[in-house]
Amino acid sequence: MTDAELRAALREHALLEGDFVLRSGRRSSHYFDKYRFETVPHLLEALGIRIAAEVAEHEPDAVRLAGPELGAVALAAAASMASRLPFLIVRKETKEYGTGNRLEGAFETGERVCLVEDVVTSGGAAVAAIQAVREARLECRTAVCVVDREEGGTDELARHGVRLRPLFRAGELLAVEKSPGNPHG
């Protein structure tokens, strides 16, 4: 799937217009519904391949991926299959039963992981996941996301020493494609 085809598929399947309250508390006239692209097999597979390529290019020393629950777990699994790197699931909070883990999956102290995210707005959820990874004495300096809403997440992650590598930026997905047959383009 080409970049243009994937961009068009994300617009078709996941871009909603209306009045939405985002996780950050901000209001928006558009919403990228991650579950609408994570639950479509051919899109999930294409995204996993793209995420794996970004990790290989921008964080080649990573030995593991990490996906925050719930939204990024399917993406981390798809990228894990494409890259052959194992992944961790980062819980929002430590579970109160069983092992009491915040990170699910096997790992060794000091390993470098790459965070996988779905949609980044202000960066708050990604920073919380990175802090959990670092509290487990793992190294994380790169995050790959499907969509950067371009609302401060890149800068917030940079303040925590993490580079955000988006597959797509909101501006790209919101732009109307210019073509001869499109009177608006």
Q: In words, what does this structure look like?
A:
38% of the residues lie in helices and 27% in strands. Helix 6 links the parallel strand 7 (139-148) and strand 8 (163-169). The longest helix is centred in the N-terminal third of the chain and has 18 residues, at 41-58. The two termini are 23 Å apart. The chain is an alpha/beta fold and 185 residues long.
Topology diagram in text:
Layout: H1 3-14, E1 15-21, E2 27-32, H2 34-38, H3 41-58, E3 64-68, H4 73-83, E4 87-90, E5 103-104, E6 112-120, H5 124-135, E7 139-148, H6 153-159, E8 163-169, H7 170-174
List key phrases describing it:
6-stranded mixed β-sheet, alpha/beta, globular, single chain
